[in-house]
Each structure stands twice: as C-alpha cells, then as structure tokens.
Give the backbone structure.
Amino acid sequence: MAKMRKFDTKVQHLKYKVLREVARAAWDDKLMQNITSIPKRIMPGNEPTMRCCIYKERAILGERIRLAMGGDMSNPNVIEVLDIACDECPVSGYDVTEACRGCIAHRCEDVCRFGAITFDEHQKAHIDKSKCKNCGACSKVCPYSAIINRTRPCERACKIKAIHMGPDKAAEIDNSKCVSCGACVYQCPFGAIADKSFILNVIDILKKSDNNNKYKVYAVVAPSIAGQFSYAKVGQAIKGITELGFYHVVEAALGADMVAFAESKELTECDDFLTSSCCPAFVDYIKKHYPELEGHISHNLSPAATIAKYMKEKEPDCKIVFIGPCTAKKMEFQKKEVRPYIDSVITFEELQALFDSRDIDIMTLEEDYLDNASYFGRIFARSGGLADAVAQGLKEHGLEDFKYNPLSCDGLDQCKIALLRASKGNLPNNFIEGMACTGGCIGGAGCLTHEEKNKKDVDAYGELAYEKTISDAISLLK
Amino acid sequence: MKVTICIGSSCHLKGSRQIIEELQNLVKENNLTEKVELCGAFCMKNCTNGVSVTVDDKLFSVSPETAKSFFNSEILSKVN
C-alpha cells in the first residue's frame, strides 16, 4: 500500500510521516504522552540514514514535530527555517572547479561582460568575486562544464530574494519580503524549510463538531486536486475527506466562477489596469514590493474566501477548512478580511497524512461526487486559466467589445517583470494574472506531486464539469 | 415560507439548477416573491433521493420533471 503513495521527493515523504504520526496521536488525545516517542517510531534503527548520527536525525525530527504542531507562534510567517536541519550549503555563487583544463580558447573570458575571469600561470580560470554578477554565462560556454553554480537551492528557488544566509550560516527568511509561496520549502534538498501545519487545529475542529452535530464542517477543495492522489480517483479522495469527518466537500472552483464573473466586470470599470487577487502570494508580493500598485489589485477576495463567505453567510455557525496546494493560503486565512470565512487551511500533503493517520485507504472507497463549478472555475488551477475565465466572463456579461489584453504571469519571476513594467507605466496590458508558483496552483509547494501531466489533468477535470458556463454555475447561488 | 434546494454535488448533477430556475419562474408568475423565499444549501444528506428540497424543514425529493407539480402541491396550495 505504501508503495502507491506518491511524493516527488524523500523530503516530502519524511515530512508526511511526521504529520501522520502527530495526527494519529492527536485523534486519540495522546499527543502529549506520545510526543517524545514519535522520532524513534519514525527512525527506529541505531544507524543514521540521512545525517551524521541518529541523534541529530531525531533532534531534527523533533523540530519537524514542532512544525507539524503549528511551529513558532511568535513568528508571523507560516514558512520557517529549521536551523539545525539546514546543511549550510556553500554560498559562493559561480566557481571554477578542478575540471578546468587551462585551455587556450578562454571562452569564459570572452563571454564575461564584467571582466571577472582571470587566469593563473597554468592558464586555469579564476573568478574575481568583486566583479562577478553571477549571470552564469561562463558556465554555459565552458566545454568541460568546469564552472558550477554554488548558489544555495533555497536562494535560487526564491525569485524575490527573501532568503539569505544568516550570521550563523543557516538560511534566514526576511519576513518583510517573503510572500509564503513555499518555493524554498519544496526546493530545499535537506527539508530545512517548512510550512507550519494546522492539522491539529483541523482535527480539533472535527472532533468538537461531534460528528457535525454541534456545527457542520465543510471542506473547500482547490481544483488542483485533479492531478493529485493519482493512485486513486478524485471521487475517492472526496469520499476520503468525508470519511475523515467533514460534513460535505465544496469546490473552491465555484468561488473562482464567482470571482471571474465579478472581476471581468470590475476590469471594464477600472482605469489603466487591474491585477488578479486570487493568488495570496502574488497579492502579498504587490503589497510588500510594489505598494504603489496596491490600488490596482482586484477587490475580489480569493476564490476560496469568496465561496467560504457565501457559505458562512448562509450558515454562520459552520466551520470551513480549505484544502489545497498552497502554503500562502495559510498566511491568507489569518488576514482580517479572510479570517471570518476560513477557519483553517491544510495542504494536499497534509490531507494524505490525515487519511493515513485514520488508516483510510482511499483506493478502497466508493467514489463520491464533487461538481459545483464550471470548466472556467476549475481551470484557475493552472497558469492562464484565470485570464481565460475573465475572457469568458466578459462574453457572458455581453462586454465582448471591451479590448481585453491580458498577461498571464507564470511564477514570481514573471510577476516581477510585469509589475516592474507596470510601475514604470510601460505595461501594454490591462489585466495581469499573477500566479506565484510555476505553472499556477498545480506548482504549489503543498502538492504531493509536481508533474507535466498535472496541467492536462486540470483541463480534463474542467471538461468534466456539469456546468458549461460561469453564469450557469453561479446562478445556483442567488 | 422558506424553500431550500440542495445544491450539493450529487443533487447538482441531478438537476438542482433546472429546479431552481423553474421554481423561481413559478414564484414570479404567481406573484409570490414576497411570501416564498428560495435558497440553496450544500447537502442535506439525502443524496440517493435527490434532488432534495425542504419546505419549512419538511423534506421532499424533486426532479426537474416533477418541479411544477411539486410547486403546485407543496408551495402554491400551502403558502397562504
């Protein structure tokens, strides 16, 4: 059975095991009794398998347990560095290695625009760090692949330079810049950066509901679920969520339909340009890095918050848990404008851990239905989907004459270019779809897998939607 | 009178939207908009017999085909 679980990396698998054990103990109200035995249960042997010694491995597991229980409450960021897990990777940038043969061609010297390459008496190349800009051009042209990039994977993953080496050499996050997208979490090869978990909060909400008698607990699930849990069917994962004790599962994509409908109208009424507000990391990026553009952000809440708001207005005492691919959602739901609607947030990674903490094998379950949204709401999960949905929204409003010129920014590096142009008044587009993760939500750090096929899965899932237009999907909500 | 139509996934696939549209039209045609409140709810735990509709908390199973007769017997004749 365990073989069927699919994670991209062993780091994710390790994190999953910790979440599963913490959850297992929490369901039985035995977390405090069992907490010290969890590291040993995960690492039973006396031989280290990952680090210098078993004691360090278990100490790091202790830190992972802390994160699984909610992490450092005094740190407002939902992304945290586990200092002792950080391997303190080199930070020297581009370096010439032993593989340099001291050739005659010196392509590296010719291609360097900064005059940073020098040669010793053996004709071997050296990089003058005071001149090098880490552009990587020399590395690309060396016929011996002798020049390598020693930028830390976390720093390379962070397109907005919010992580750097701290005074003790471990990575340090600058909370004034970080947007909690989780790119570093997914990219750190040592699993030294992690997102705080709210699984204990969710277990508590479910338990106190007394089987949904005291209040109902709804799960709002992101459409990127289509490419996840690939060892089973989406319907079985939905059934698994109700087996965990949720009353009912609702598509966040229905909120996306509502957003697309409202946002297309808003676009025609705004001057200059509008940016999307769906991706909480993108919104946070604008607020922290381009505050002068804040007025251009759409006034819509994110799709999950929009549908949750609708549900809470109908049923004020219900509880709503968002389940998705996103670590930034854990930051978003704590904001004052979202807090009244979303009670907690977990990722697909954490959902898998919750299933297994209750020994729920979703492959053995019958399929449940999940069908609230239209094709357009569902394709929000991948880059370009939101812009397509806004185009459809314009059409359904009868506003086809509006000259719609969208730009879909796939990943924070593209968002950065677009916002930079916009801040200088050089943006030809009137709508920016901003997605912090590469590929859109399907590239989220909380996904179990990140594969090429996930985009196709989302599109195919969109095609399966019963409702074919945004207006039809949202007409139910009036 | 409060009429709640289930818009959970299972009922949605069985035609909640068509029923809502039909009931909205009938309520309007019969000038009952002041007296009948139509609303949606996510799941009434009666999925196998959907589409579930409650009239002041009494549960009914309705299909798009039976929506009109349901309106006549359970809403129109009882509203006053």
User: Anything to note?
Assistant: Chain A has four domains: 1-69, 71-88+153-196, 93-150, 200-475. The two ends of chain A are 45 Å apart (CA to CA).
